[in-house]
Amino acid sequence: MDNHKRKIKEVDQYILNLPADIGEITGSLRELIFSSSPELIEEFKWSMPNYSCKGLVCYLQASKKHVNLGFQKGNELQEKDVENLLQGTGKTMRHIRIKKMEDIKPEVFTSLIQAAMALNEN
C-alpha cells in the first residue's frame, strides 16, 4: 500500500510547523509507524497525529526538544519493552522520548507498535 495515500494533510501541516530537527524526527517516526502495518490509519486528534487499528494504537507528540512516540495501552507493553524505553506513570499510557534521530530504533519501535496493535485484537 502506498504510504503517501495514507497521510492526511493535518499531519503534514503539523510536521511542517515544527522546528526542523523535531520535524525530521516526527516525519521519520511517521514513516516507521506506516511501515509497521498497512492497517494503521492516521488521524489528527487531541492536537497530534494518532494511529489506530481496531482502536487506538499509538501517537506522536512533539515538543520543542523531543518527540514522544506514545502508546495508549503502554502499560500492557512493559514485558515486550526489552530495552526499557517506555516511560510514564499514567494509568495506561506510556511513551518513548526521542531527542535525536539516532534515538530511533526501527526494529524495537516496530515490534512495540505491532504488539500494541495485537492488544486491540482481544
From TrEMBL:
Gene3D superfamilies xrefs? 3.90.1150.200
Q: Which domain of life is it from?
A: Bacteria
The segment(s) forming the YdhG-like domain are: 26-117
InterPro entries in the record, alphabetically? YdhG-like
Protein name as it appears in the record: YdhG-like domain-containing protein
Q: Which organism is it from?
A: Virgibacillus profundi
